[in-house]
Design goal:
It is a single chain. With about 500 residues, this protein is mostly helical. The protein has one domain (about 5-470). The protein is built from 17 helices and four strands. The strands form two sheets. Strands 1-2 form a two-stranded antiparallel ribbon. Strands 3-4 form a two-stranded antiparallel sheet. A hairpin with a 2-residue loop joins strand 3 (about 160) and strand 4 (about 165-170). The longest helix is centred in the C-terminal third of the chain and has 35 residues, at about 350-385. The radius of gyration is 26 Å and the shape is globular. The relative contact order is 0.15. Residues about 1-25, about 455-475 and about 485-490 have low confidence and may be disordered.
Length: about 500
Amino acid sequence: MKPTTTVSSRTDPFVTPVAVARDDSPNPSAFWGMASICWLASVFILYSRFFDLVLKGLYIPRVVISLMLLFFAISGRPLVFLRSGVGKIMLVFLSWASFTLIFSVWKGGSLPFYFELLISLLFFAVAASLPNTISNAKKSHYALAFSGLLAALMSIPLGADLNGRLALRDGSYADPNYYALGLLAIVPFFWEMAASTKSNAVKAFAWLSLVPICWALIKTGSRGAMFGLVAMLLVLLVISPLKKKIVLVLVCAIGLATVIVTVPDYLRARYFTIFSLDSGHAKGDSSDLDRLRSDINSSEGRKLLLMESIALTLEHPLVGVGLGNFQAAVYDEAKAKGIVHNEWMATHNSYTQISCETGLPGLFLVLCLIGVSFNNVRCVLKGAAPAGDKPDIAAYAAAKSLLLSLAVVCTCAFFLAVGYEFTIYLWAGLTVSLRRVYEQSKVTAALPESETRDLANSQPVFAPVYAKIKDRSTQPPMPRDPARSVRFNRFR
């Protein structure tokens, strides 16, 4: 049996040492290729929301995702994610959410959110387990980038004007705030695309693709996305060298001036109006003023929902009120106090959504998951840097873009109730796979050529017997003893 090389993690106590065994081979099984194709197609379909508006009756997303899960199950890699600290935390969080179902105030209302969390776990497992090289990990980033570009372009023929704000006509992106999150989170992946290629055509395509994305993003009028953009730029400012910091500040100033000059009066006033209506920014006709007053009322309403979710967390600190039961619990409390309560509103904050519905242990687990995910990216960013242990331009660009994108997702989660939706967990899975393949590349680079060749030709540990199919044309012929007589088939 061949020895297994391990790499210990000195910086992350949550991560199990990476074992470079046969399950991380560049060609793990015959079904891995089909699983990868279906995975990229599933990411593109689910994130672009194309079939939310086109060919909705054909159930194409369900078919593609089902095929992806089938090939992933027989690819020999469905348990690889359990070797990571994030994978263990995710599994514990799912177990805790399952336990809280027993104490849910409305069990029937919790089941749809529980199934949504199960789907998120499946996407996390595939994102964390399937890629086995840095190139394959980057393909997931590019699939998200292209899907975001398609979502932005769909706003031209299929867009809708919601009181001066841009969204799509139907589906999940009918919410301008969620639409803005989907557009902003993939912007760093186009930066990665431009930084990782030597082709001028690809660079030009990557930068030009940001034009429709930024245009649609500004038109959404999402103040949550504005905070996400600020968080992304702050992180970029921190990790950039001094010269690039100066360039970044100048670019941001030019961009801000361009936005102020070009956007409509209502959107400009909306971005400047966070908690109060400033008469200096409230310019335009009476309809714009009415919209701004409605925006202020919306902000005040969200503050009240935030306080109610915190109050529910303090009332039910251990197990919460049950997945998706915030609205039902608020209604029950209002009814008990004799207050007429006709609104059925979500928390509009993913963190208080998890805390009031799964208790403080659930919030602690999710915060640990996010913290370890950031640490995964930090380790790759540190090691793959030009002055790191193993400089790698591709891994460094991937880690940098993933760090910026993860900052956007976690910041915008403060303004959206997406605690069980797949976005946060998909990004966590991307950090796991990127760190795993980077640390594997560090080990394989130090192995002798013979061991590296054996590692490439090996089969995965978790692969079932029927998945271990080899191409006989690539196998060397069996040696034959010249002294042994050759027997002819008498029936030939």
